[in-house]
Amino acid sequence: DFWEIDFPVDLRHTFTPDEFAWLPTGVEVGAGYRYEYHPPRTDIGDTQFWLADIALPDLWLVPRLSYERDVIRDNGTYLNLCLYKELEVFEKVFLTPSVSQGWGDRKRVNGYLSDPDMTGPLDRAGLMDSRLQLALSWRPWAWLEVAGFVAYSDFWFDRHIRDASRNYIRQIDGGARNTSWCFPVGLSVTCRF
To answer: For residues 173 and 83, what is the distance between their CA atoms, to the nearest angstrom?
Structure first.
């Protein structure tokens, strides 16, 4: 029912203890831009985002904190904390389980969800996008990665946002489903240079 195509451009660098002796571990920082395309048959318009993130990639369980600012649709802010572990299952093939939790400010939540009565936007900030994900990637060369993922996503910690999501799904689905959860899937091709 819903799909989008994202066109990201990211710059990132890992600062190591070899470069800066005061660092206890490597610190990866990134900044980027993303154009999000939605097909004309949907009522969702295209939008653009500015992105930033920081991670500690040398730890056994890697934490990553991401910042996202929508500059077209809702002018809202979204934060996401993710913990993941990359495991090499075959030569050049990696399996990455992860768990993450998002938070949206009032503008972000307001831009995506209506209040439970469907009379106006949901006027609150809150925890959103609790997610469990499993990704499989193949890196035939250092500069190329082909990956896919499947995830389970819901709103575990904020019943107001969960109820608003259920109402939204009922509205677009003609009342056939009374759920707030979904199973997103995705494919990506990443070139690094």
So the answer is: 33
